[in-house]
Amino acid sequence: MQFWLLLNFFLLVAGNIFAFGLFVSPVPTFRRIIRNHSTEEFSGLPYVYALLNCLITMWYGTPLVSADNILVTTVNSIGAAFQLVYIILFITYTEKDKKVSYPFSHMHLVYCSGSAICSVNQFFPLCSRQVRMLGLLLAVIGIFSIIVAVSLQIVNPFSRQMFVGLLSCAALISMFASPLFIINLVIQTKSVEFMPFYLSLSTFLMSTSFLAYGIMNWDPFIYVPNGIGTILGIVQLALYFNYKETSGEESRDPLIVSYA
User: Fold this and answer.
1) CB atoms < 10 A from the CB of 21, how many?
2) Closest C-alpha among 166, 196, 191 to residue 179
3) Which of 17, 73, 87, 132 has the greatest number of CB atoms lying within 10 Å of its CB?
4) The pTM of the whole model exceeds 0.85
């Protein structure tokens, strides 16, 4: 019993460490943005979705929703702080007069709580990127506040955990699915320039750690999305080692390209 408790704790701590590596991976990109005083063609949308995911998962890990998941709360609290800083920097360095249109077909929203973000996109079909990012940030705060308020009205602990857990699971799957367009780009170009190795490695290690932790605690809201993340991490690493020799130049920045 002592061994399994130690293993369980080790997996959770390892997941936190690898998640931290994932959270800091965009730092080189934002160093470039700050240096050039421009967001260029980078997209801020992934950071908005990641912030919503971290906030929902952070709430799921609190004792008010689920038991013995406090480290899930701590790692996602740190993640939310990083994403918020990234979004503020993105808004700060976005060109004020740059107009951009975002067709719905290029949205990455695949979970129900994203409908509010979608409505913001439709409300600002053609606007400055600064205004749009600020609107999305406010939408995320509003969505999270509604989720917290609604879940606190659910008296039954099991029903509350199911409600928040399903939203957390959907948000995690959405975040892990976001690199799919990068995988498609790697296959088409036969180059790993836009798929940094350490970003893919951090995703795989974090997902694997939380997958094992979720299985040991029999928590499907943790092991199902992280199982998907593990598979996608393996695919990314396999593509990296397959195409790294044919890449003309390997990027040092974890680029997030806007296809909108």
Assistant:
1) 15
2) 196
3) 132
4) no
